[in-house]
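Person: Please comment on this record:
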Amino acid sequence: MNTIDEYNLDVRALSVLIAVHDTGSVSRAAVRLGVSQSAVSHTLDRLRQALGDPLYVKSGRGITPTRYTLQTVPHVRQLVDDLRALSVGPPFSPAQAEFTFTIAANDYQRDLLLPPLMHTLRETAPGIRLQVMPSGIPSADMLRQDICDLIISPHPPAVGDVMQRGLLTDQMTVFYDPHKRQAPANLADYLHSQHIGILFATGERMALEGALQAQGLARDIAVTVSNFSGLPGFLKGTNLLATAPRRMSEHLLKEFAQAPLPFTIKPFTLLMLWHQRNQDDSAHRWLRQQLVAVARHLTD
């Protein structure tokens, strides 16, 4: 028998050998693999040269494996399985994992999604630590340069190397102190009231301002804060209005009353964004699954 030519072997070629063995036919193996019969035959010829054995011989109208093939295929199958396992990285055990996972989010997204995620980690993966940083205007470079592992934002970067998945939808609503005023009765009442505005540290304003401007409308902003966390202190005990995501009634603005906006504005979707190099990383994928589970629980 000839010395094995390892340079003429690869996972695809070995997978052909397994397919022919499992199906007992070159044509059926071709169908299973989604290739032509000639491609399977050519690969078998290459394997015969590399392994120094006929592998399969004619038997009536079909083929039959040689003794060498019967002895070799179990080892080949294990080898292919091991090689495929390498492509998805080592097995991931949440209970044994120890690393820091950095998530970029603003205060609304942080307070809504990350405390329950941390609760899950403390129960199932106590060695994983969360680091939370401001997301600002999301940038693909934050992911490309490993500044963070994941971004939560309604604004996906329009680039091909950033993956995304929707977590949940939300709707802007108007909050007020019910001890100081009633809900705005109509659009005129809303516009004539004084408001708390938000100008994020990045210089970004809420999409609400653009929606109003598109309709030729403007609010009377009495005070501007740099994030959603600044709303309760200025809202409490005043007749001011604060327009913010409805789900903030579940945490930061839970002591205030809310009412629908007196004009139409589309709901928005919170997305999680990650770089494509982490798409198949087992630890990264597990963290994404936990965040999806948190969001699903919030929407049930």
Notes: The first helix runs from residue 11 to 23.
